Amino acid sequence: MLHFNMKKVFALLTVILVFGFGAFAADMTKDPGFTNGEKLFKTNCATCHALDKKVTGPALRGVTSRRKEAWIIKWVKDNAALRATNDPEAVAIFNEYKGVQMTAFGNLSDGDIKNILVYVENAPAPAAAKAPVAAATDGGQPAEDTSAWVYVLLAILLFALLVLSLSIESKVSKLLGKELINWNKINAIMFPVMLIAGSMYIYHYFTKYAPYTYFSVGAGTEHGKVLDQMFMVTLTITGIVFILCQFLAFTFPYFYRHKGEGTKAFYYPHNNQIEFWWTIIPSIVLVSLLVYGLKTWNGITMQDKPQNAYEIELFARQFDWTVRYAGPDGKLGKHDYHKIGGANFVGMDYKDVASHDDILNVGEVHLVVNQPVVMNLRSQDVIHSAFIPNLRVQMNAVPGIPTSQIFTPIVTTKEMRARLQEEHPNDPAYNTWDYMLLCNKICGASHYLMKMVVIVETKEEYEHWLATLKSPYQAENPVVVPATDTVSTNKTAALK
Ligand code: HEC
Ligand SMILES: [Cu+2]
């Protein structure tokens, strides 16, 4: 039975309420810095930044939780100078915005920038200003926080009310000497109720979010289709068993509830035959799924390099990816981690002439449709993972251990986009749909920045694009160096 010291419950409630209203009291919009910050933001920053959505630059609300204030001040004053120090966060965000450069604001003082941050973090959100609950409690400012607190307080009060009434009920029951509420029956009914409510909840969220999972976009590779099929077979078999078991687990407590004095449970301790079959059958099914999975996996990862394959390299570091293409000679040059430094940040070994025409690119990965590619991976610092969901490609980049994956994209970006636009005629998001490369290992604070657009295109488009890029070696050596063994060794030595 429930025994509560009412004085303690109310003391606790008071503390919670005081804390709650304490949050209203710290209203930063009344801070003098706020108005100054608002003015500065509107005149200097609003052309490129909004608070809650990405425009030319990132949404700025919440920036103080992802960056240190000192960093933001340096960045705003002169972001190019910050990048020149190879600050990883500055380089990463710059790359994420495809090299769009933000203006330098050397004229703003530290105080000005701090005021801007006060405004950015505390400006009322436009949508929440409409919430009637918030408006009623404190004149509508700051709307977003208030409504959340009102719901929390309401929930606490309701819970307290429930506890109170239950404790009264138990006391009255005791006085009367009989139960006012048949808990046994209520518990029994709650099981099927939970089953139905839970299923509705899952169905709702599944239909709402399934279109955003990568399975909703067909695989862009041949092996991806095989993988999807394996996944569907596994999911169907385990799904049927799961649903059956949950159904039984949630309905038996209702059907076999205690039905009053005199009912006796049926005692059924053991049946060898049933146990035999329910051990053998799941074992066979699980082992078959395992073998099926292993065969699929080996088929994807253990293939030999196909004749017509070309190689690229993905170089991972905190927090970006660099792609290296072989250039006209079709060969990736050697690399050596001792050479990592300065402009040669991927550690190319220029003693190897094959590296002279190697091209580096940080903005996007380009791949040729219908031609197998060997994707080699290296990492400079910690484990990263190259994940291209819609190509069903995933491989770890491990420091010190070169890894690779071979795959063949079969649907170009343009074709996939057209297909998706056809499937979702009313959703403009698909007009700019792209394959994405993501890092799939939580590799540090700015892990989320490790993403890059992947463009699958025809061979002509690919070669045309590649021809527009210059290899770093050739950029430093204006003389066009043919990628053959005749290159002067002096020049090579000079560059290393
Ligand atoms: C010309 C457009 C432009 C203007 C004006 C501008 N920004 Fe930016 N800002 C950007 C872009 C683009 C980025 C993304 C990084 C990059 O590409 O350099 C950025 C990034 C930032 C970041 C880093 C955000 C993050 O997620 O790390 C901060 C902070 C920032 N800007 C603050 C400001 C402030 C404060 C002002 C006004 C004083 C301002 N910006 C004015 C374009 C602009
Ligand atoms: Cu990473």
Structural notes for this entry:
This protein is an alpha+beta fold and 496 residues long. It contains 16 helices and ten strands. A five-stranded mixed β-sheet has the order 3-2-1-5-8, with no helix packed on it. Strands 4-10-9-6-7 form a five-stranded mixed β-sheet. It binds heme C and copper (II) ion. The site of heme C (HEC) has 23 residues, from α2, α4 and α6.
Strand-helix topology:
Layout: H1 6-25, H2 32-45, H3 63-66, H4 69-77, H5 79-84, H6 88-96, H7 110-122, H8 132-138, H9 143-176, H10 183-209, H11 222-255, H12 272-301, E1 310-317, E2 320-325, E3 359-361, E4 364-368, E5 373-379, E6 384-388, E7 393-397, E8 403-407, H13 413-423, E9 435-439, E10 451-457, H14 459-467, H15 472-476, H16 489-495
Parallel strand pairs: 1-5, 4-10
Antiparallel strand pairs: 1-2, 2-3, 5-8, 6-7, 6-9, 9-10
Helix pairs in contact: 1-9, 2-7, 8-9, 10-11, 11-12
The protein binds heme C and copper (II) ion.
What oligomeric state best describes the polypeptide chains here? single chain
Proportion of helical residues: 40-55%
Task: Name the structural class.
Answer: alpha+beta
Q: Are there runs of 5+ residues with pLDDT below 50, and where? A: 17-25, 128-143, 485-496
Strand content: 5-15%
Radius of gyration: 31 Å
* CATH topology assignment of the domain at 310-495: Immunoglobulin-like
The major beta sheet can be summarized as:
5 strands, mixed
* CATH homology-level superfamily of the domain at 310-495: Cupredoxins -  blue copper proteins
- Give the H and E element order: HHHHHHHHHHHHEEEEEEEEHEEHHH
Separation of the first and last Cα atoms: 80 Å
Please give the number of β-strands. 10
The CATH class of the domain at 310-495, by name, is Mainly Beta
Count, helices: 16
